[in-house]
Specification:
- The complex is a heterodimer of chains A (about 110) and B (about 120).
- By secondary structure, chain A is mainly β.
- Chain A contains no helices and eleven strands.
- Chain A has strands at about 5, 10-15, 20-25, 35-40, 45-50, 55, 60-65, 70-75, 85-90, 95-100, 100-105.
- In chain A, the strands form two sheets. In chain A, strands 2, 4, 5, 6, 9, 10 and 11 form a seven-stranded mixed β-sheet that branches. Chain A has a four-stranded antiparallel β-sheet with strand order 1-3-8-7, with no helix packed on it.
- With about 120 residues, chain B is an all-beta fold.
- Helix content of chain B is about 0%, strand content about 55%.
- In chain B, the strands form two sheets. In chain B, strands 2, 4, 5, 6, 9, 10 and 11 form a seven-stranded mixed β-sheet that branches. In chain B, strands 1-3-8-7 form a four-stranded antiparallel β-sheet, with no helix packed on it.
- The radius of gyration of chain B is 14 Å and the shape is globular.
- The chains are: A mainly beta (about 110), B mainly beta (about 120).
- The interface between A and B is medium-sized, with 22 and 23 residues.
């Protein structure tokens, strides 16, 4: 199974900051990567798919990049509602796998 | 608007079978454009894909399972009721989790149910 490793595992930042989260795959997955945001007690919300395509309705301050094994999620200017857990997920091959998650907290 | 809703017992006894149903409204599960799947999240932990089902044509479907659970998992669907189901046998405490059903575009979940907590107890 393809393993996804996110870094950092947790991150403290302030409103207005620019934040980058990294997801590394154990083998090449082309651009078959998605990013999700999860707030407490809620299901994950799809933010980005195909590594860089913004899901409809997602604010443009979110962006994704990368291909192969290294990917990033960037939030250009943090808003209060962005403090959450972020997950990456690969869909290049079965079994579908997720990263361990990155907790983004308010500094 | 597509909606998914999980239902089933919140408490399952050790070694018994966990059964959940996901009722879909706002679109047919028989569409070959989408997959329908189950994902779980143990308390305080990350997400684990359990398996997916996809219809190719009106009656033929394919299923895909996580190898780590394959021997215990069955996913089935009832297109007449527009729902799909999960059965996980021989449960242990490690199966305690929030179980989500989801629609997947290829293999990326884009619509999720609210989730249901299933606790395995002795």
């Amino acid at each position: 199974a393809i393993q996804l490793t996110q870094s950092p595992s947790s991150l403290s930042a302030s409103v207005g900051d620019r934040v980058t989260i990294t997801c590394r795959a154990s083998q090449g997955i082309s651009s078959a990567l998605a990013w999700y945001q999860q707030t407490p007690g809620k299901p994950p919300r799809l933010l980005i798919y195909d590594a860089s395509t913004l899901e409809s309705g997602v604010p443009s301050r979110f962006s994704g990049s990368g291909s192969g094994t290294d990917f990033t999620l960037t939030i250009s200017s943090l808003q209060p509602e962005d403090f959450a857990i972020y997950h990456c997920q690969q869909f290049d091959s079965y079994p579908i796998t997720f990263g361990q998650g990155t907790r983004l907290e308010i500094k | 608007q597509l909606q998914l809703q999980e239902s089933g017992p919140g408490l399952v006894k050790l070694s018994e079978t966990l059964s959940l149903t996901c009722t879909v409204s706002g679109g047919p599960i028989s569409s070959s454009s989408y997959y329908w799947g189950w994902i779980r999240q143990p308390p305080g932990k990350g997400l684990e894909w359990i398996g997916s089902i996809n219809y190719v044509g009106a009656t033929y479907h394919s299923t895909y399972y996580n190898p780590s659970l394959k021997s215990r998992v069955t996913i089935s669907a009832d297109t007449s009721r527009n729902h799909f189901s999960l059965r996980l046998s021989s449960v242990t405490a490690a199966d305690t989790a929030v179980y989500y059903c989801a629609r997947l575009v290829v293999a990326a979940p884009d619509n999720w149910g609210q989730g249901t907590l299933v606790t395995v107890s002795s």
